């Protein structure tokens, strides 16, 4: 897809990963202007240019795809076709490095309260915890958000065992990659930043003797069940 476009639009660090070549213009912007970035891409496409909007991971999972559709609600862009190209999301990569922690039912959430109130984040965390789902957490902390991981940990401990398995993936897929397996009680919230993705296990999540993490595909049937 990238080989066939004239313009690449996206967050600076992601755009910089696209090799420069003749005939390609790269449009890099900051981290909090997603809709403006999407409008730029749509304007270029409306003018007849071939444009790719890039994200880290999968554009449809906390990426730019939703921002493009949000901007495209403007009737001015009604004639611009949008195609979402699937990528590899951070939760898939971290899970694969760890073993198979999302082998059963799981949920995916962002701890960022930039676009939603923290009260809603807490409500959803509580629902996931009570449902005993494996939980993948994106955007756990940033320079301006320093308390959310500890708050989420305290909330989850109200519903989950302290021994619940936790996987911390940092910079997975890059040169500085690291993977840590710990427990919900021993999770060091102060060590978590935006480079991390957390996977909080369910009650059935297990760790092998070799340290790999996995979750059974189905809940165990009751002995009285058919």
How would you characterize the overall build of this protein?
The protein is α/β, with parallel strands linked by helices. It is built from six helices and eleven strands. The protein folds into two domains: 2-77, Tetrapyrrole methylase, N-terminal domain (Cobalt-precorrin-4 Transmethylase, domain 1, 3-Layer(aba) Sandwich), CATH 3.40.1010.10; 90-214, Tetrapyrrole methylase, C-terminal domain (Methyltransferase, Cobalt-precorrin-4 Transmethylase, Domain 2), CATH 3.30.950.10. The strands form three sheets. Strands 5-6-9-7-8 form a five-stranded mixed sheet, sandwiched between helices. It has a three-stranded parallel sheet with strand order 2-1-3. Strands 4-11-10 form a three-stranded mixed sheet. Residues 221-226 have low confidence and may be disordered.
